[in-house]
Write a structure and sequence with these properties.
With 323 residues, the protein is of the alpha/beta class. The protein has twelve helices and 14 strands. Strand 9, helix 9 and strand 10 form a beta-alpha-beta unit. Helix 5 packs across helix 6. 46% of the residues are buried. This is Amino acid ABC transporter substrate-binding protein.
Length: 323
C-alpha cells in the first residue's frame, strides 16, 4: 500500500494556514479518489517548529510514508528534510519559501514561490518610492531571518532608501514574519506606527484574519504576497467547488497543496518503481491546478506570480501585480 504523509502545524489555534492545508488535502483526496486506489493518508503535527519538524519526519518514516506534503513552515521543513533525504522520500513544499530547502535537500520539490524572488520584488517596489526612511523588523522564524537578510542586503545598495534602527525615525515600515508575530508587532507598536505612512507585511498576512486583527486607519497597510491562481480554468473549478461547500473562497497556498496530490496521483499512474520517482519528478511535466510544472534540476515550480496587496475598506485589493 502507498502511504502519503501530510504535515503542518495542526495544533488547536496553531497556524493561520491550518484550515487551508487540511481542506486542500481533503478535497484533493476526494476528487482524485485516493481511497478507491487503496492509498493511505497519514497526518502528523509538526507544530511549525524545529523539534516538531524532526518528530513529524521521524513518525512519518516509521509509519512508512512514500511521499510527504508539507511542511508549511520553513523552520519545520529545514529540520525535517535531512531525515527524508536519507530515506529518498519526495517532499512537496506547498508553502515553505526558504531558498535553502531546495538548494540543500535534493528530496524537496517546491510548488510555492521562494524568498529570494520575493526579496527582489520587495526591493524593486520600495526603491521606486521617493527618498524615504525605512524600518525593517522581523521575527526569529527562518522565513523572517532569511528574507529580512536578503531584503536588507539589496536595499543597502539603493540610494533613495535609508534604513533606520528606530521605529520612531521611519517614514515606512516593513515587518517580515509569521501571522501571529506580525500582528503582535503591529499591536505592540500601534502608537509609533500612527506616525508612519505605510506598513508592509509579507505573504502570511494575505488572509482575512488580518482585517479582523488590525483596525488601523493609518498607516496604509500592504502585503507582499502571491496572486491567487484562479486564472487557470482548472483552478477556478476547484475554487468554485470549495466555495459551494464553504461559502468562501480558499486562501493562499490552497491550490499549491492541491497540486501536490495531483502530481503524486499522476506519478503513481505511471506504474514505475519507487526507485524512479525522483528522476521522473524532475524530468516530467506535471499538469496541475496551478499550471504545468516542470521542476527540473533545481526542483522549483517557477510558476508563482507575485502581488502587492493593499488592505482598504476592510478588504484586500491588488495594488500592483508583478509579471
Amino acid at each position: 500500500m502507498i502511504r502519503i504523509g501530510a504535515t503542518a502545524d495542526l495544533s488547536l489555534n496553531g497556524s493561520i494556514h491550518q484550515d487551508t492545508f487540511v481542506d486542500a488535502i481533503k478535497l484533493a483526496w476526494s476528487n482524485l479518489a485516493f481511497d478507491e486506489k487503496k492509498v493511505e493518508l497519514i497526518w502528523e503535527n509538526d507544530f511549525a517548529s524545529e523539534a516538531g519538524g524532526v518528530q513529524a519526519a521521524t513518525n512519518l518514516i516509521k509509519r512508512g510514508a512514500h511521499f510527504v506534503i508539507g511542511h508549511y513552515s520553513s523552520t519545520a521543513a529545514k529540520h525535517a528534510l535531512p531525515f527524508y533525504v536519507k530515506k529518498n522520500i519526495p517532499v512537496f513544499l506547498p508553502a515553505a519559501t526558504s531558498d535553502i530547502l531546495t538548494e540543500k535537500f535534493d528530496c524537496a520539490f517546491r510548488i510555492c514561490g521562494k524568498d529570494s524572488d520575493l526579496a527582489d520584488l520587495i526591493t524593486n517596489e520600495i526603491s521606486e518610492k521617493k527618498a524615504h526612511t525605512l524600518y525593517v523588523g522581523y521575527d526569529q522564524s527562518i522565513h523572517g531571518v532569511e528574507l529580512s537578510s536578503l531584503v536588507l542586503e539589496r536595499l543597502s545598495k539603493v540610494p533613495t532608501v535609508t534604513i533606520v534602527d528606530k521605529l520612531s525615525e521611519a517614514k515606512n515600515v516593513l515587518f517580515i514574519g509569521n501571522f501571529k508575530n506580525s500582528i503582535d508587532f503591529a499591536k505592540k507598536n500601534y502608537s509609533e506606527l500612527q506616525h508612519t505612512d505605510e506598513l508592509y507585511f509579507t505573504d502570511d498576512l494575505v488572509h482575512p484574519e488580518l482585517i479582523n486583527s488590525i483596525g488601523f486607519r493609518k498607516p496604509k497597510i500592504f502585503v507582499f504576497g502571491y496572486t491567487h491562481a484562479s486564472k487557470y480554468i482548472e483552478a477556478k473549478q476547484i475554487n468554485d467547488q470549495y466555495y459551494n461547500s464553504n461559502q468562501k473562497y480558499p486562501f493562499t497556498f490552497f491550490l499549491e497543496t492541491y497540486a501536490a496530490l495531483e502530481i503524486i496521483n499522476k506519478l503513481l499512474s505511471l506504474e514505475n518503481s519507487s526507485n524512479e520517482w525522483m528522476q521522473l519528478l524532475k524530468q516530467n511535466k506535471w499538469e496541475t491546478v496551478v499550471g504545468n510544472i516542470r521542476f527540473g534540476f533545481l526542483r522549483e515550480s517557477m510558476l508563482q506570480k507575485y502581488a502587492l496587496w493593499q488592505l482598504e475598506n476592510a478588504k484586500f485589493e491588488i495594488a500592483h501585480e508583478f509579471i
